[in-house]
Amino acid sequence: MLDKKLAKLMGMLSRMEKIGVAYSGGVDSTLLLKAAWEARPGNTTAYMVDSPLNKPGELTSAGETALLIGAPFEVIPMPDELENPEFAENTPERCYHCKLSRFSKLKDTLPGDVTIVEGTNADDLNDYRPGMRAVRELGIRSPLLETGLTKKEIRELSRRFNLPTADRPASPCLATRIPYGERITPERLRRIGEAEEFLNNQGFSVVRVRDTFPTARIEIAPEEMARLTDNKFRADLIERLRSLGYETFCLDLDGYRQGKMNPKELMNG
Predict the structure, then answer these.
(1) pLDDT tens for residues 209-218?
(2) Domains along the chain with CATH numbers
(3) CB-based contacts of 67: which residues, under 8 Å, 6+ apart?
């Protein structure tokens, strides 16, 4: 079954004259870039948005992965994303406004003979994904979704292709750490990014620092909680969080779970 899906994916991509991959350096878009480059070598380019929503080091890491694949890597600067009030107000439609803005800029930037593709997969239909409406409205293709590839299958194919992202945890943009209805600001994004970078640098694999300022609510994998509560490390963490302006600190005992902050009534399945 997986081989048939891969063959369908490669056939779909090979029929595109030129391909522009909306690239983040994550599991899905990296596999899509690899498949597109194999299907249309020399006619595929990775495009990544540079904005305050990116995690520290994300742009550099994505560029290195694209270089490993062999595909050209181009950066689309979007430093003014937070100037869009429909996005910055952080309603449950936040991701729609973000995707609409990003893909519109990509379409305006690229020649008309380039097919823009993005990395939504079949499992994403079970989550709240308002950004998919923007994808449909702008005619962006979603080859992984169209092929029916699940996250598990994408990771399996990534291992088959020896991609460094095969086992990488999901890492959505920093705005997802801010509760709906609370305004997204550069300062909030900066402190979230630096707090998560500190924990990642200490070896924690899955990290979310939910910003309900002045409180930082930390979500990590349940199996890593014991290490976080070690007295020495806990003191270092509190010192770092205080340096970023946080005053109180919570550990979510339920651990990290995808979509935890999405309102239940908005979930698709």
Answers:
(1) 999 999 999 9
(2) 2-160 (3.40.50.620), 174-251 (3.30.300)
(3) 73
